Every structure is written in structure tokens, then in C-alpha cells.
Amino acid sequence: MIRTEDLSFSYRKGPEIFEAFSWQALKGESWAIIGPSGCGKTTLLYLIAGLMKPISGTVVIDGQVITRPRPKTGLILQDHGLLPWYTVEENALLGLRIRRMYGPDGRHAPEDTHLGEAEMKQVVESFMERFGIGHLKNKYPSQLSGGQRQRTAILRTLVMNPDLLLMDEPFSNLDVPTREDLEELVMDLQRELGMTLVVVTHNIEEAVFMGRRLMILKGHPNRSPECIENPLAFSRGNRVSTNYLNLCADIRSRLEKPS
Ligand code: ADP
Ligand code: MG
């Protein structure tokens, strides 16, 4: 699904953040990328999203070299980016409406889907129910809690039916119970919809809950990353189990080890 091949990247005049960085994620996998602030997590996500270009090397998704954002990739950021003058429902419809304006051109919208207004509303409605925010559809973002806003933002991306979902620290501003609820909702949907998921976080517990596979980044330059399998992902009961806490401690010590 995603392959980075010999990826190198630096910002103008900055140090090299990625150097010959090769990694791959298979279709339907869920990856958590963990690392300290400033190590390059957001940069990697933007490279995968096609929002930034590598200096050398390539990002390949589904066999295609990425040179621009692709319509089947969904991206969710920390500051949800809802439009304040639109209601929850209008915000949720926004991406679909923009897509419809372009038509199924394969560049801005997938070639294989073209929904009419009534179908779009139906899709949005069913997702709003699923997300437990149906009753908020006529509210404006300023009338919502942080968790409800982030629910709306995730929903707005999922109604577009992405096959790849990229999330950049999506829950870091939320209180713990809200964050855990949303982690569970996303993981349920990831499996139901068969999406590939890449979530970036600096929260070790969140990484261990969401990532069946974990990528540990330590700082620049990042070369081939340390990746580990995580059989403990997704299990709600595991959050306080000894195995889970031991794995979190193991990752903490790996992060502290110099690369
Ligand atoms: P993370 O998401 O892991 O916190 P980033 O990918 O945002 O890290 O940043 C990686 C490094 O690149 C940091 O040292 C940061 O200061 C630098 N950086 C990020 N964005 C820019 C930019 N637009 N211009 C120059 N340097 C940047
Ligand atoms: Mg970041």
C-alpha cells in the first residue's frame, strides 16, 4: 500500500530529517508512528500525503508514485479545521460537495464514485448516527466540545471513503476518556472499512492501543526506522494489563536509547 524508497528530505537550509528512509505498510494495516517532538513525524505524514516533495527517493501508494495529494487519502490534523460558519452537517458535507464540483476526474475525486446531493446527505447522516452526533447536526463548531469537534472532523474525512487514513496527533488536545473513546471508534471503523491507518503520536499508550505495528522515530536524520509488531493493539481490556504496561515501558526505553 505505502512504500517509501530511499526517501531523503530536509527543509531549506535545515538538517536532513530523512536520509535513505525506506519503509513499507501493507494494505489494511494500522501503524502508529511514535517519537519525540521535532523528530519528523508530521513531515513524514505530509510526504506520504503528497503535500511535500522529497528531495530524493519516492513515496509509492498503491503502485503510484506520489507527486501530489491523492483523492483516496484522508488526512486528519490536530486542529480539526472545521469552518466556524458552517453547521456540523454542512462541515461534514463540505468535502463531498467539493468533490462533486470537480466530478470524478481521478485527480481531485476518485474516478469510481460520484454521489448526488441526496446520496451525500444520506452518507453523512448515517455516519453522524454512527459517531453519536446526529443530534448536533445543526450546531456550529463553537457550540461543540473539543471531542465533538474532532468527531465531526474525522467524520468529514471518512464520508469521503478513504482507503488510507493519516492522522497527526489527532487526540492530543482531548481529555483522557474522550481520547480513549475516539481511539476506539477509529479502530472499529478502521477494521470495518478496511482502511490502512497511519497515526502519528507522541503518546506511548495511544500508539500501543492504535498501532498493530509501531514505528519508532528518534530524531534526524531518520534512516531505516525501528519497527515492531504489537499483538496488544485494539483490545480495550488491555489498557491496564501488565503486558500492555510492560510494552509501553519497553517503548519508552527504546525512545530513550540513542540511535
Ligand atoms: P514532529 O511532528 O515529529 O514534531 P516535524 O516533522 O514537525 O516534527 O519537524 C521535524 C523538524 O523539522 C523539526 O526540527 C522542525 O523544527 C523542522 N521543521 C518543521 N517544519 C518546518 C518548516 N516549515 N521549515 C523549516 N523547518 C521545519
Ligand atoms: Mg508534529
Strand order of the largest sheet: 6-7-8-3-9-10
Helix content: 25-40%
Principal-axis shape equals: globular
Helix and strand element order: EEEHEEEHHHEHEHEEH
Walkthrough of the structure:
The chain is α/β, with parallel strands linked by helices and 259 residues long. 35% of the residues lie in helices and 21% in strands. It is built from seven helices and ten strands. The chain has helices at residues 41-49, 88-102, 117-130, 146-158, 176-193, 204-210, 242-256, and strands spanning 2-10, 16-25, 30-34, 56-61, 64-65, 73-76, 164-168, 196-201, 213-216, 226-229. The strands form two sheets. It has a six-stranded mixed sheet, sandwiched between helices. Strands 2-1-4-5 form a four-stranded antiparallel sheet, covered by helices on one side. Helix 5 (176-193) links the parallel strand 7 and strand 8. Helix 2 runs antiparallel to helix 3 and helix 2 runs parallel beside helix 4. The longest helix has 18 residues, at 176-193. It is globular and about 55 Å long. The two termini are 27 Å apart. 35% of the residues are buried. The mean pLDDT is 91. Bound molecules: adenosine-5'-diphosphate and magnesium ion. Magnesium ion is lined by residues 41-42, 168.
